[in-house]
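Q&A log
Question type: sequence-to-structure
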Amino acid sequence: MIIIFSCWKTMIGTAVAALPWTFQQSGIVLGVILSFTSFLISFYTCKLIIDMAGTDADYSDTLKKFYGKYLPIDWPLPFDVL
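Response status: OK
Response body:
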């Protein structure tokens, strides 16, 4: 969960800082269209991850299920510091 919240905090903070400038550069109509397109892609990706996780307790369990021996056992540990 720590990894998810750290990534979420980083993405939200960056988006909040950058959105006014991007809307100013692209215009309101194109900005809304691009924001909505980004939302759809993010929502679809999230839905795929949730569907694939099933009853897994953590996202790392899902990764181990699909990547098996190619995923190091201690993979999430470096990200716990964030």
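Response note: The longest helix spans residues 28-53.
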